[in-house]
Amino acid sequence: MSSAEEIRNQAEAARKSKNFTQAADLYSNLLEITYKEDQKLDVQACRDFVHYGECLISSDDKDEETFETAWEVLENARVGYEQIPENERPPEGLIDCHELLGELSLKQLNFEEAASQYKTASDLALANKNLSWRIPLNSLFMRGVVLNYWNKVSEYKDALDKAIEFLDTEKVNPKNSADVKDMEEIRADLVSRRDSIRQ
């Protein structure tokens, strides 16, 4: 096993154990070995950048420099994924990039950017019928969360309505009948949130 593979495995283990600061350091070391600025990223490199960005966002370091680095590596991943032919890249790759850029923007209280990133993520997710229903639902819901923080009451209600309509559509013909109970519970929560909105 190469040293890069060893570092990647260690980084993955730390990330999955939620040791995000340690994982971020390992991904930084990994990318120093594997990343060359003048060459296009393959799927594995894009995935490494996404995981590095995720760990930076979730790490104990909340300073502006960390957030700037996170933005840069996630943008690298986004551009990398966009340059890979659609039939060769994982469908959730770009969605992950935009969701994490949305999360980062929300942490920085840049609500307009966060809402835009989650909108892009949900559009990509809704366009791919092979993905788990949870992926587009998460993007739709998180866009609503951003709009709520942003005090965009009408848009927040619309976002919840879209999430509810999506669940209603998915429930008619679920990919897995075991998911129906989860869908119903989540739908009830979304309806409760919507009905508690004061216009």
Keywords:
199 residues; mainly alpha; TPR-like_helical_dom_sf; repeat; histone binding; TPR repeat
What does this structure look like?
- It is a single chain.
- The chain is 75% helix and 0% strand.
- With 199 residues, the chain is mostly helical.
- The chain has two domains: 1-90, Tetratricopeptide repeat domain (Serine Threonine Protein Phosphatase 5, Tetratricopeptide repeat, Alpha Horseshoe), CATH 1.25.40; 118-199.
- It is globular, with a radius of gyration of 18 Å.
- The model has no long low-confidence stretch (mean pLDDT 95).
- One of its GO terms (molecular function) is histone binding.
Question: What's the helix and strand layout?
Answer:
Blueprint: H1 3-16, H2 20-34, H3 43-58, H4 64-83, H5 92-107, H6 111-127, H7 134-149, H8 153-172, H9 180-195
Helix pairs in contact: 1-2, 2-3, 3-4, 3-5, 4-5, 5-6, 5-7, 6-7, 7-8, 8-9
Keywords: Repeat, TPR repeat
GO molecular function: histone binding
GO biological process, one term: DNA replication-dependent chromatin assembly
